[in-house]
Design goal:
By secondary structure, this protein is an alpha/beta fold. The protein has helices spanning 9-22, 28-38, 127-130, 140-151, 207-223, 225-228, 254-258, 261-273, 288-291, 331-334, 366-379, 395-402, 424-430, 439-444; strands at residues 75-78, 95-101, 119-126, 155-161, 164-167, 199-201, 231-234, 281-283, 296-298, 316-318, 324-326, 339-343, 384-387, 412-422, 446-453, 455-456, 466-472, 486-493, 495-500, 511-518, 522-529, 534-541, 546-553, 567-571, 578-587. It is 21% helix and 25% strand. The strands form five sheets. Strands 1, 14, 15, 17, 18, 20, 23 and 25 form an eight-stranded antiparallel β-sheet that branches. An eight-stranded parallel β-barrel has the order 2-3-4-7-8-9-12-13. Strands 16-19-24-21-22 form a five-stranded antiparallel β-sheet, with no helix packed on it.
């Protein structure tokens, strides 16, 4: 039987590590019985051969991470290639959350990063610590903590938690809440909760709560803090830790939510507090009224890497051929607003009964999920990510240089040639465009093809491909088609076409094309461009390894290939097909 763990963080991590080491001593039948009783969605254990073994890096370990070296000549390596030229700097609007403080008396530590990043510290503050006595607002400790973060080289994003009277249940639950308990004497009612483990929240819509909340935001403005922080979060009542969301009803009911006076007045207050700095404000969910003010949004579940498909507010939709696309006219992308995600659930605790084996019975799948979630966040054009675990260290420097990019300033463009299958009903429930669903999609699921950033692959006549390299998912994700709980991480074909977004300036200059492929059979992999007159080749050994090869290109003639493609990856003479997982075109500064 799994023991109940203490809540002390350091002790808890140590106990969890010891527990996981002991798990092999338990019979498989006992483990299966325990897991199935806690989380019936856990799938049988799979293997993840193309990613490193699980190794969780703590904040103190960030100084050990370095970017993957950039190599200036053609070469081939085992595994993935996350390298970028040394001249690449983080985008101005990029932020990456690397350290979170939830106690005002705790210091941020120096990170001593050995890679380039616009790193920020997350500062979570309780309203009850700011306004201990009604009407007396004291931001001095918040200011001190911001200044201390600055002293160790960190900017700060601020999150004031306002709604919970208590977290969970029990005699000490009210001590863990965020809202001032004196609100109880003001006649503010509590919202019902579904479970004793949920937050017990005051009702933000109640007039007595609302006027005091508006006063809190007004005093925040007077404190000078809006000018001191890099960004600030505004949320709403939620069942989980923190003020999640932004509105009381489903986000899909945009008109209903935006018509509520108290929702509009809350957002108006934040606009006044950040006048001229509206780009700093990010919401816990989508509000069209907030987007109209230039506010951004931060979601928080990218570990389930197929969520938010579709989502018109984020520009996410699937075309009729099944390709996952991005509508860059969505306000959050077009206005270059704060566009955030959280990618953090990689501690060993997530593979224990304490947290219901949320992502499987072991941590074996965690590096794969981290890999896929990181690429999904970039596919969504995120400007910000709070990330932890760093299970593939080379990806963190790459991520820090990719956030906040537009196609005009991107150091590379890429496509990850993956496929998953989504339930048609799930897609329709969130679709505003009325995308037709075929009979096949209704019974077999909608194929979700490719994560892309301005490099596109589309099957066409003579360029047909099939999904390849099957990887089983760790759990049954709710949006995935029944009995298709797997991903394909590549495509196989005789000829695979690619087109670079014509807005990418580097398309006409020197570039390195990095092809990650499965060396599945002996033969030749070719990159062909300039009407087929230019050919690069890589020998295939058939050793079954995943590899990345780099081709150096100069003088690429855009759209010179068949059907206006920019280049083609194909099997050479006597090579029936090639299997490709990811392709990146990287700009080389002359």
């Amino acid at each position: 039987m799994l023991m109940k763990l203490r809540t002390d963080g350091r002790h808890r991590r140590g106990m969890l590590k010891a527990l996981l080491l002991l798990l092999p001593l338990v019979t498989m039948g006992q483990v299966a019985k325990t897991v199935s009783s806690v989380n019936p969605n856990v799938l049988p254990e799979s293997t993840y051969p193309y990613w490193p073994a699980y190794r969780h890096l703590e904040t103190e370990d960030l100084k050990t991470i370095r970017a993957q070296p950039w190599i200036t000549k053609e070469h081939t390596i085992d595994g993935w290639d996350w390298s970028l030229p040394g001249h690449v700097e983080p985008a101005e609007k990029s932020l990456i959350g690397l350290q979170r403080i939830m106690e005002l008396d705790k210091d941020y530590i120096p990170l001593n990063l050995n890679f380039k990043a616009n790193g920020v510290g997350l500062l979570w503050v309780k309203w009850r610590d700011i306004e201990v006595k009604e009407g007396i607002h004291d931001f001095s400790k918040v200011i001190t903590r911001i200044q201390q973060a600055n002293q160790v080289g960190l900017d700060v994003t601020l999150r004031i938690l306002t709604c919970s009277q208590a977290r969970g249940s029990g005699p000490k639950a009210s001590n863990s809440g965020d809202a001032p308990l004196w609100l109880e004497n003001c006649g503010v009612p509590l919202l019902p909760r579904k479970s004793p483990q949920d937050n017990l929240n005051f009702d933000p819509a109640h007039p007595e709560f609302h006027k005091r909340y508006l006063k809190l935001v007004e005093e925040l403005a007077k404190s000078g803090i809006p000018k001191m922080v890099k960004a600030a979060y505004v949320g709403y009542a939620s069942h989980s830790l923190g003020d999640e969301g932004i509105v009381p009803f489903k986000e899909s009911e945009a008109e209903k939510n935006d018509a509520l006076p108290h929702v509009r007045e809350r957002l108006d207050a934040w606009q006044r507090a950040f006048q001229g700095m509206e780009h700093k404000v990010f919401m816990g969910g989508s509000s069209h009224y907030g987007f109209g003010k230039g506010f951004g949004v931060r979601r928080g579940y990218v570990e389930m890497y197929l969520y938010n498909i579709p989502n018109p507010d984020l520009g996410q939709y699937v075309d009729q051929a099944g390709y996952l696309c991005v509508d860059e006219n969505a306000p959050i992308i077009k206005q270059r607003a704060f566009n955030g995600e959280v990618n953090e659930e990689y501690e060993q605790a997530w593979a224990t009964a304490e947290r219901r084996y949320r992502f499987g019975a072991t941590v074996n799948s965690f590096p794969y999920r981290y890999f896929t979630s990181t690429l999904r966040a970039l596919q969504m054009r995120c400007t910000y990510i709070h990330t932890t675990g760093h299970l593939i260290p080379e990806m963190l420097p790459y991520l820090s240089l990719q956030l906040g990019r537009t196609v005009e300033e991107a150091p590379d463009v890429w496509t990850f040639l993956r496929t998953s299958f989504m339930k048609a009903a799930n897609y329709q429930n969130n679709d505003k465009s009325g995308r037709p669903i075929s009979a096949v999609e209704k019974t077999e699921g909608i194929p979700i093809k490719n994560f892309e950033r301005w490099l596109y692959q589309r099957d066409a006549k003579g360029f047909e491909t099939r999904p390849a390299i099957k990887i089983q998912q760790a759990i049954k994700m709710g949006m995935v088609q029944d009995d298709k709980y797997f991903d394909y991480i590549g495509r196989a074909g005789k000829r695979i076409d690619f087109k670079i977004d014509p807005r990418w300036p580097a398309r006409n200059g020197a570039m390195a094309v990095k092809v990650t492929y499965l060396d599945a059979g002996a033969g030749i992999l070719q990159l062909v461009h300039n009407s087929g007159k230019a050919v690069k080749e890589q020998l295939l050994l058939g050793d079954g390894k995943l590899k990345s090869t780099t081709f150096m290109l100069t003088g690429l003639v855009p759209q010179s290939m068949e059907q206006d493609f920019d280049f083609v990856i194909q099997g050479g003479k006597d090579t029936e097909e090639v299997t490709v997982s990811m392709v990146r075109a990287v700009a080389i500064m002359q």
